[in-house]
Amino acid sequence: MSTPAHTLQAITEKYRTRFEPRYRSKINKDQWSALNAITGCRKGQYGELGTTCSSCPYSQNIPQSCGHRACNQCQYGSTQDWLERQLQKQLPVDYYMATFTLPSELRALSKAHRKTVYRLLLESATKTLKTFGLNKRGFEAELGMCAVLHTHSRRLDYHPHVHIVIPGGGLHRRRKEWRKLKGKYLFNGRALAKVFRGVFLKALNDAGLPPHKSPKKWIVQCTKVGRGKEALQYLSRYLYRGVIANTNIVADDGTHITFQYIDSKTKIRKTRTLLGEDFLYLLLQHVLPKGFRRARDYGFLHGNAKRILRIVQWILKVDIENTTQKEPQMKKRMMCPKCHSIMNVIGRHWLKPSPR
Length: 356
Hints:
Elements: H1 8-23, H2 29-40, E1 48-53, E2 59-63, H3 76-87, E3 94-101, H4 107-112, H5 114-135, E4 145-152, E5 158-167, E6 169-172, E7 177-180, H6 189-206, E8 220-227, H7 228-236, E9 249-252, E10 256-262, E11 269-275, H8 276-284, E12 295-298, H9 306-315, H10 320-324, E13 343-349
Antiparallel strand pairs: 1-2, 1-13, 3-5, 3-8, 4-5, 4-12, 6-7, 9-10, 10-11
Helix pairs in contact: 1-2, 1-8, 3-7, 5-6
């Protein structure tokens, strides 16, 4: 596998001296932390792992990764762990994807109050779906939902929205039965958007953040996305990785950065070119507030509803034994570059800070 010609870390190191004087006053503490993490990842800033060969005298110190969710070198393992947990919850039904988008008129408010607005966006979207599930004639059941917050478009512009994956069925608690949903669409998108608008604007007012203006027409998309595994794999690609992969950074001429993306409407591959410092600022807009959970489960998919989920899986004849007993994953072993024997970890140490 070839190494990308341009990496986010190299670009961060190269353009940071031009970025700081221009954008120092425009980014917050969390964004500074992300910038520092990306710059220092696997460079010794986060310590080194001491290893020694099990068969020969060879030893090696391996710089540790930062683990920051904004760093595109990290989080692959976290993504796989999340996907494995979700696959333990999958059901043999059709799955639907609902996408709730924050209108452009409210994005300035969102930037100024990120943590509050992001939380209300998730809560309002899931509340709207829950209401539709309980009120749908002939269904009237509680939904299970897995929601993930995104803040960027494919062009990497600031574009907060929530993707929610919903199994095609729900629990009717009063009758203690599972009810199945059918059809290409879970609910009508226009009807969802109308209710979502009211719920979210009320939540903003209750939080003391009334918007100056709001469009009358909001956008909610809702469609069938296939069976459980395919839908969850689709969602997992957005969870823990950085905003942009190194393979999508196609050029760096010393002043400008060019990256590629696939246009959401035409599906054609396009490119966008920005000054290096502007490119860094574009990425840092998408750093989430510290401690904010971008992925959340609701209803019978929530972590506290394991007993109910097991009953649903039993009703739907899911192989519960194989579902609940996750086989331990084999970790990739480090091999000695000299004799190809297994390398053993002997400890971890921190580099002494350089004198100022």
